[in-house]
Write a structure and sequence with these properties.
The chain is α/β, with parallel strands linked by helices and 176 residues long. The strands form three sheets. It has a three-stranded parallel sheet. A two-stranded antiparallel ribbon has the order 1-2. The radius of gyration is 17 Å and the shape is globular. The two termini are 29 Å apart.
């Protein structure tokens, strides 16, 4: 969203820092998935509609949108809750809807802020297994911000920040 004050930002071979605002918006829409800590679900729409919304800008065919949205909700264990509005869902269910919305567009990079913060340990394991499967099968790159040591231990690489400064970067294969 922001332009760097120095250096460059490369993604998929393109220097994103040199793109126009509209071109950066297209990069976000096509290649990035976001899981926000506060979910940002639309309260007047169902879980299904919240997930499908992302696809309205990408896929004209309503049947294809429906199939993908249903598949994403099923992947996070919410196939039976698709018709419910956010106020009718628990915090953990809302979080899983937000995750389904983030993965439905098959992004190349998933940016997730505390994606399991409202989940019980069983749901957390299901979501982390799903993300690992997406990484292995689709090559999805995942950046997770977390304070949860169990979630951090799941990662192939951890980068620790403290007071806004990099404190440790444990390279691939050595989580800490």
């Amino acid at each position: 969203l922001d332009s760097p004050t120095s250096g460059s930002h490369r993604m998929l071979g393109t220097d994103v820092s040199r793109l126009t605002r509209d071109e950066r918006a297209l990069v976000r829409r096509r290649y990035l998935g976001f899981v926000f800590q506060r979910f940002h679900l639309l309260p007047s729409t169902t879980a299904f509609e919240n997930v499908e919304l992302l696809l309205l800008y990408r896929i004209a065919d309503a049947g294809e949108r429906r199939t993908r949205a249903e598949r994403a909700l099923a992947a996070v264990g919410l196939a039976g809750r698709a018709g419910h509005h956010p106020a009718e869902l628990s915090g953990g269910e809302q979080q899983r809807v937000a995750i389904a919305r983030a993965i439905v567009g098959e992004p190349k990079l998933l940016l997730a802020d505390e994606p399991t913060g409202n989940l019980d340990s069983r749901s957390r394991a299901v979501i982390l297994d799903l993300l690992l499967e997406l990484h292995r099968e689709r090559g999805l790159a995942i950046v997770i911000v977390t304070h949860d040591a169990a979630v951090a231990s799941w990662a192939a690489r951890t980068v620790r920040f403290e007071d806004g400064r990099l404190r440790r970067d444990a390279g691939a294969g050595s989580p800490s």
